[in-house]
């Protein structure tokens, strides 16, 4: 029963590879279908392997499945590589799309880095502004103290002036 499934997988592998090799999207779709079938058959093989009586039969079935899986993946990679390196319109479009994505990724990284630098500069400016504001606060308090002292000196000078005027008048009366 397991050998029948393995044979069926091999026939799917051969027919899918030759019939649809002309189109990359169809090839990708057929690869996905074959991969799903392979996974399904692997699950069935695992279930059947539990029913096998000898360890050698289980190992043989798993080795065969693993070998075909590796062959399928290798051939799919080679076919995709051939399509990408080929001169067909699909490979040109695919290469263009890959280049566009790479360009967009590069531009996004550049913009992100620029935004990081801008953010860092903003943080530095905020820190400088905070420092300047603290300096202004200190200057304001010094100016307020100076104003208070100035008012005190002015008041003292006004009293002194008044006293001097009074003393001059008294001096004039005394003469």
Describe this structure in words.
The chain has helices at 2-19, 24-51, 55-85, 89-174. It is mostly helical. The protein has two domains: 2-85, no CATH class; 89-175. Helix 1 packs parallel to helix 3. It starts with a helix and ends with a helix. The model has no long low-confidence stretch (mean pLDDT 80). One of its GO terms (molecular function) is SNAP receptor activity. It is a single-pass type IV membrane protein. Its main location: membrane.
Mean pLDDT: 80
State the helical fraction.
over 70%
Measured between the Cα atoms of the first and last residue, the distance is: 146 Å
Give the topology string: H per helix, E per strand.
HHHH
| Strands, total number | 0
Number of helical stretches of at least 4 residues: 4
Number of domains: 2
The assigned structural class equals mainly alpha
> Which consecutive residue ranges, at least 5 long each, have pLDDT under 50?
none
The main sheet comes to:
none
Taken as a percent bin, the fraction of beta residues is under 5%
Key terms for this structure?
single chain, 175 residues, mainly alpha, transmembrane, Sec20
Give a short summary of the structure.
By secondary structure, the protein is mainly alpha-helical. The protein has helices at 2-19, 24-51, 55-85, 89-174.
